[in-house]
Structures are given as C-alpha cells and as structure tokens.
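Justification of resources, computational component.

The compute hours requested in this renewal are based largely on the per-chain cost of generating structure records like the one below. Each record pairs the submitted sequence with a full structure-token output. That output is archived, and it is also reused by downstream analysis tasks.
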Amino acid sequence: MSKVKGRYVIDKLFMYFGLISTFFGLVMLAVFIGAILKDGLARLDWDFITGLPSRKAEKAGILPALTGSAWVMVMTALIAIPLGISAGVYLEEYGKKTRFGRIVEINITNLAGVPSIIYGLLGLELFVRILGMGGSILAGSFTLALLILPIIIVSTREAIKAVPKSIREASYALGASRLQTISMAVIPSAMSGILTGVIISLSRAIGEAAPLIVIGALAYVPFVPTTPMSDFTVMPIQIFNWVSRPQHEFLVNASSAIIVLLFFTFILNSIAIWLRLRRKVQY
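The structure output for this chain reads:
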C-alpha cells in the first residue's frame, strides 16, 4: 500500500513540475514577444517593408531580405518536396526490410538531428565549389533542401503508416494495382499528414541563417534579387546584421524584421495545425 501511495505522490509531483515548466516557458515567450512588439511596431510600416538597406537606420528597409527569403523558400520547396515525398513513399511501400534498408532508415532519421551548420559546410563544398554555383540563391536553396529533406521523408513515412489498412484492402478488392492503390488511395489519405510535415520543415528552413552564412549569403544587399543565380540575403541574416550594430535604432529595425518573420512562421504553423486537425476529423 505504501508503494502505491509513493507512486501516486511522485505522479502528482511530476504533473505539477510539468505545469510549472509549461507556465514558465509561456511566460518567457510572452515577455519576449511583448518586448519585440513594443520596440518594433512603431517602426513597422510600408516604407520599411518596401525599402532598401541603408547605413542610416531610419531609411533602412527589408525588401531585399524579404525577397531573398521568398526566393529561397520557393526554390527549396520545389527541390525538397518532390524528392522527400517520393523517397518516403518508396521506403515505406517498396523498400525491402533488409539490413541495408534498415541502415538507410536509421541514417535518414539521424540526419534530421544534424546541426544545420554541417549542412552549410556540405553545401559550401558541393554546390558552391564543386558545382560552381557560388553564393547564389540556387546554392542556398539546395543546401536548405538537404536540411529539410530528412524531415519530409520521415513525416511522409509516418503519414503513410497512419493510413488504415482497410483503405488498401478496399482498393485491392476493387481490382486496383499496387501503383494505383498507392497513388489514388494511400497518398490522398495521407496527404494532410504529409503536408503538415512539409510545412513544419519549411518553417524551420525560413529561420535558418547558419547554413546560408557558410555558403556565402551576404549581410548587406542593396538590390532585389531577380534570378536564381543572384547574390542574396535572407531575413535572419539581415536581423543578425542589425542586432550586431551598436546603434539603438538598428535594434528597433531588427525588432520590426522579427515581427515580419514571426508573422510568416505563425501562418505556416497555423496551416500545419489546421491540416493535422483536418486529418483527425477525416479518420
């Protein structure tokens, strides 16, 4: 009886510890966002969004960084999404459970936790130097595509695993082939889960700065990139550039840029949550 009572006490203590930790994290997040909004909202206007960088804080804008982030995200999505989904479908539906297959699966899972700067070093050697892309948008997009590829593969596999077997059995019962079953029954049923993983991976990529700094993304770009081979900067690098300056006005600019970046990140994560809830309703 005493052992049961002790376990009950431990369970209660752990619950309270979890509540306190959650509350502390939420308070710190609220303080952080509140400080950002307090400093940045006054500077956030249309001229700031459409302006070019300047050595004078009151004239500086984020248009090149915002356009560069848009270019990089679109190119990264075009590269990573087809490859990631295709690889996930193959590994889950066609890959044989051999020793080599298990090694591949383990390594893909481990790659999802590799520090982003390692991908930056890989992109520097492979895309910038060997393939001669230089510090371009295309090199940055390929580097970020490598970064999020394991996440898309893993999420695709998990979404396919969650599809009820009855859907496959019903498709086979109607005379569909394996390819038809996968393409017209399994993947559509798993699509909301797949898209959730894709959006979460893109949310991670939009805030990455270390890999892009390694491959040669610039901290100061006074022009708007127009082609995939253009030099570029992105929002996180622009924010870092402003934060590293001693003038308080540049810190205000950084706060405004953080608000813009958080806005797009929250939109992506909200879409991911909506897709996840939609999948639960369907099931």
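The mean pLDDT is 85. The chain has two domains: 2-40, 47-282.
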